[in-house]
Amino acid sequence: MRTLIAEDEFTSRFLLQKFLSQYGDAQVAVNGKESVTAFRAARESGRPYDLICMDIQMPQMDGQTAVREIRALEEAGGTLSTNGVKIIMTTAQDDAKNVIESFKSLCDAYLFKPIDTEKLLGHIRDLHLIEPKMPDRTR
Amino acid sequence: MAVRHQKCNAMAASAGTQQCSYLELLIVIDNAVAKQLRNSIDSEAFLKRLKGDRQLAEMILKVFLEHSALQLSSLRGRLDDADAPGVRLQAHTLRGGSANVSAEVLRALCRETEEAAASNELSRARVLLPRLEEQFELLKVTLKQSGWV
């Protein structure tokens, strides 16, 4: 599983990268703009991401705009969002309004902060990115 | 000693209506500080969210302390520049980190600062900044005392 973590806050980024790197290559972007650039570069190199964990409030470009741009790139390349990269939006627990907006922007799931690794793993399993019975490597 | 602590707490509650000795006053202060330290982080909740991975928790706390210090400094800079959107984003970022390590008091103060900046009340945000810095220092002490970092 190849993952891109788009997150401006260092602790969240560090936590996600440490956790997700147990399941494959986990790269980082520090804002929405960087995540779109990384997504495009990965596609062009023939090694696209399987999963993007996208924060919502970020400098330069927010997560919702970045998701829209990523889906537009996929569509332009003939990929429907249902077959595209899986996107989990990460947001503060009290920003529910943002979550609704994210679904409109074609993301696949959301994860409230503070980040709970068990819930994250549940999403990854639900999205069929790892085998349902794949052992939890952190135990 | 427990009886003495109870007596001092009762004295503190009566807010100056009685006089207590210097030693008793020190105990009251000590109790108050200990309570503040205990409240600065919910390490049990933090560890639970990491499925009990203590090593990962320690690494995260270390980077959290390093980066939050920088973020606080940046927050001060943005307040000095009267940059309300910048203050809002910086407080939001710090809130995310605080939430991740279950530093609940710091998280609540960040949220207040974020809301103040969102409504362009920078004078309120300026009042909150010393409390944020104090809480951050308290958190550092707690984490050192309890052997987390």
Key terms for this structure?
heterodimer, A: 139 residues, alpha/beta, Rossmann fold, five-stranded parallel beta sheet, 41% helix, globular, B: 149 residues, mainly alpha, Four Helix Bundle (Hemerythrin (Met), subunit A), flat
Largest sheet of chain B: none
| Main sheet attributes: strand count, strand direction, barrel closure of chain A | 5 strands, parallel
CATH architectural arrangement of chain A: 3-Layer(aba) Sandwich
Q: Proportion of β residues of chain B?
A: under 5%
Helix-strand pattern of chain B: HHHHHHH
Structural domain tally of chain B: 2
User: How many helix segments of chain A?
Assistant: 5
State the distance separating the first and last CA atoms of chain B: 31 Å
- Global geometry of chain B: flat
* The CATH C-level class name of chain A: Alpha Beta
According to CATH, the homologous superfamily of chain A is Response regulator
Individual helix count of chain B: 7
Question: What does it look like?
Answer:
The complex is a heterodimer of chains A (139) and B (149). Chain A is an alpha/beta fold and 139 residues long. Chain A has a single domain (3-126), classed as Rossmann fold, CATH 3.40.50. Helices cover 41% and strands 18% of the residues of chain A. A 5-stranded parallel beta sheet of chain A has the order 2-1-3-4-5, with helices on both faces. In chain A, helix 4 (96-104) links the parallel strand 4 (86-92) and strand 5 (109-113). The longest helix of chain A has 14 residues, at 63-76. The radius of gyration of chain A is 14 Å and the shape is globular. Chain B is an all-alpha fold and 149 residues long. Chain B has 2 domains: 2-39, no CATH class; 43-145, HPT domain (Four Helix Bundle (Hemerythrin (Met), subunit A)), CATH 1.20.120.160. In chain B, helix 1 packs across helix 2 (22-39) and helix 4 (54-80) runs antiparallel to helix 5 (84-100). The model of chain B has no long low-confidence stretch (mean pLDDT 85). Classes of the chains: A alpha/beta (139), B mainly alpha (149). Chains A and B meet through helix 1 of A and helix 4 and helix 5 of B.
